Amino acid sequence: MNEDRRVGKQQPPVILTIAGSDSGAGAGIQADLKAISATGGYACTVLTAVTAQNTCGVFDVFSMSSAHVAKQLDAVFTDFSVKAVKTGMLVNAEIIKTVAAKLSDYKPQWLVVDPVLASTSGKTLLEKEAINALKDILFPIANVVTPNLIEASLLVGEKEDGYTDDKISELIIRLRDLNTKAVLLKGGHSSNQEKCTDVLVLPDKLKNFSAARVVTPNSHGTGCTLSAALACYLGQGLALDIAVEKSKCYLTEALKNSASWQLGNGCGPLGHFFDR
């Protein structure tokens, strides 16, 4: 009976997210689980930190030990055939080194690095001395790095304001100096109020992905959601540019789906599940 049910069923790709938790479930591991499930993957998780967090901000961070992170990684990779990995909040240099070493050992086909540096409310989510470890150790083995404009500024040492078209063009030039295969520069913080344009920065070309800006109070976890969906689509065998396009479309619909929600007193979560 059980075997008959499995006949003809397509097995979902296993996608691993390595990130911190959000007790309000709008961002972090919880957002990744929703996005991966909604876009057709089976999500496994490795927890790097537990946050006290809701729609109004991040109030405390409790970090996992690097040894425990290593054990979680071994547990997943020795039992599951992982197609793609997405990293989010990595907390400190020790965890970054551990994650990079394990990924180099297990060699998943795809690695998406979302460089989570600070929360929207200003809470530091990656220790300052760990930024160099992120750039020097994890970026070189990533297939694509997905900073927003503020994170990109921090990564290249630029000032974090006034994201006009000229400022974004300057950022793109600096991003090419990073040791990465590709960067998806997310444009949500740009000064353009009509549309949001993400730029896929490749060594020899740029590709823009634009969508009308969704006016909503509920945008908590957009970066986590986009990078998780991107990892999932890559794990399904799509080319990078097609996976980016599908991920952006998914994120736009998730924003629209929660536009009328009133969950929490701050920046609310996305509606990850909708008719597609």
UniProtKB/TrEMBL annotation:
<dbReference type="InterPro" id="IPR004399">
    <property type="entry name" value="HMP/HMP-P_kinase_dom"/>
</dbReference>
<dbReference type="GO" id="GO:0009228">
    <property type="term" value="P:thiamine biosynthetic process"/>
</dbReference>
<protein>
    <recommendedName>
        <fullName>hydroxymethylpyrimidine kinase</fullName>
        <ecNumber>2.7.1.49</ecNumber>
    </recommendedName>
</protein>
<feature type="domain" description="Pyridoxamine kinase/Phosphomethylpyrimidine kinase">
    <location>
        <begin position="22"/>
        <end position="270"/>
    </location>
</feature>
<keyword id="KW-0067">ATP-binding</keyword>
<dbReference type="GO" id="GO:0005524">
    <property type="term" value="F:ATP binding"/>
</dbReference>
<keyword id="KW-0547">Nucleotide-binding</keyword>
<comment type="pathway">
    <text>Cofactor biosynthesis; thiamine diphosphate biosynthesis.</text>
</comment>
<dbReference type="GO" id="GO:0008972">
    <property type="term" value="F:phosphomethylpyrimidine kinase activity"/>
</dbReference>
<dbReference type="Pfam" id="PF08543">
    <property type="entry name" value="Phos_pyr_kin"/>
</dbReference>
<dbReference type="InterPro" id="IPR013749">
    <property type="entry name" value="PM/HMP-P_kinase-1"/>
</dbReference>
<keyword id="KW-0418">Kinase</keyword>
<dbReference type="GO" id="GO:0008902">
    <property type="term" value="F:hydroxymethylpyrimidine kinase activity"/>
</dbReference>
<dbReference type="InterPro" id="IPR029056">
    <property type="entry name" value="Ribokinase-like"/>
</dbReference>
<dbReference type="GO" id="GO:0009229">
    <property type="term" value="P:thiamine diphosphate biosynthetic process"/>
</dbReference>
<dbReference type="GO" id="GO:0005829">
    <property type="term" value="C:cytosol"/>
</dbReference>
<keyword id="KW-0808">Transferase</keyword>
